[in-house]
């Protein structure tokens, strides 16, 4: 783990390198500041247009790789006209909306019911997604320890995977992660043959950074979290916007 203050900031010049570059961008904590609840994020009204313009600069090689469901990203951004992966890589789509790779189904109904029950009994916010579900502990951190025990037991019983994040514990299908999303995109046009840069702030982004390394690229860590796989660091989403001229 490297503390972010020991990592240099990425130079804008590296975005204009000789060979083609791809950008894989996490959303919460990377493109938008973390907020008290998933719905209270501030997303600039022209963000989707700015992302589309960024993708144009990179000949389409820009993708959003988020823990949020794509439908939720679109609720905040409006129609997203760039490649994106939702629910931690469960659902990958090209810029023209075509599915890439296999998309797992929804979590079993019993799992969703038990998550809903845990949320109600423990005064924890819940977020259902087409391919997963999350328990949010930002407003009630004391419930997080029990939440993890609960999620791990449920994951074991139903062969699911637990994802940790900032004040959040999520359940998704086994095998879904941001490394898989990067690999899927890197096997398709226009990403294939490029050097990927993965930019993210959270523990699930480490998978994406690791996968970027497999293709000769690197990770950029955002914020204060120490990183295993980042080569560079930026302090906050505003610094990401500045670096990318977004
Ligand atoms: O992979 P990301 O795009 O970073 O998504 C990760 C999770 O982000 C959201 O939760 C986080 O952001 C919220 C708003 O700032 C914050 O209130 C929460 O505590 C964070 O965990 C989103 O709600 C999740 O679905 C994503 O998986």
Automatic annotation (TrEMBL):
InterPro entries registered for this protein in UniProt: HAD-like_sf, HAD-SF_hydro_IIB, HAD_sf, OTSB-like, Trehalose_PPase
GO BP of this protein: trehalose biosynthetic process
Residues of the signal peptide: none
Organism superkingdom: Bacteria
Pathways per UniProt: Glycan biosynthesis; trehalose biosynthesis
Catalytic activity: alpha,alpha-trehalose 6-phosphate + H2O = alpha,alpha-trehalose + phosphate
Entry cofactors: Mg(2+)
Molecular function via GO: metal ion binding; trehalose-phosphatase activity
EC number: 3.1.3.12
Any Pfam family hit: Trehalose_PPase
Record key words, sorted: Hydrolase, Magnesium, Metal-binding
Function of the molecule: Removes the phosphate from trehalose 6-phosphate to produce free trehalose.
NCBIfam families, per the entry: HAD-SF-IIB (TIGR01484), T6PP (TIGR00685)
Annotated family: Belongs to the trehalose phosphatase family.
Protein name: Trehalose 6-phosphate phosphatase
Native organism: Aurantiacibacter marinus
